[in-house]
Write a structure and sequence with these properties.
heterodimer; A: mainly beta; globular; B: mainly beta; four-stranded antiparallel beta sheet
Amino acid sequence: NAGVTQTPKFQVLKTGQSMTLQCAQDMNHEYMSWYRQDPGMGLRLIHYSVGAGITDQGEVPNGYNVSRSTTEDFPLRLLSAAPSQTSVYFCASRSSSYEQYFGPGTRLTVT
Amino acid sequence: GDSVTQMEGPVTLSEEAFLTINCTYTATGYPSLFWYVQYPGEGLQLLLKATKADDKGSNKGFEATYRKETTSFHLEKGSVQVSDSAVYFCALTGGATNKLIFGTGTLLAVQP
């Protein structure tokens, strides 16, 4: 099993550019989420989804959009990148027993 | 709301030393508790979990016991190795929310 996959691994954007971080899982999990990890801040929840067609905001949703058209895919969109969005982004999916599986992360730098 | 507090790092130990990383939580109801580990340059991996009071989770020589009376879930290992060097995150889910709430992480550095 591939588990949770994320692309790209690294990305550099200029302020104002847009991009989509891809996330896919092959475990048929209903619950998926996006986190950002910043030094000294732990992981903060951006958006999450409890199933196809259903998304909701987490702790730090501003500047990010998500959609969930299939169970497998949960992309994260940055509409107009800002330097404050420089971070490492992790996608995760969760089993019915609340075990969360993380992707390898995307390291984003916004200049 | 629900929250997790874990000890500040970094924790620096010599190989074969005893490890304790403290974790306490605040939650309504009966949360499930987890420890995740993040090795350099990687995503987080589930290390162990406990779903009810007095449960002990264990994996790879690490242990943690769900203590409801002290709202704690301290991580322990009897003899650490250099390969255990990583960041360790305590987390909870359930309680007032079904979201996974993380502590800020504790960096462990084990020296040979």
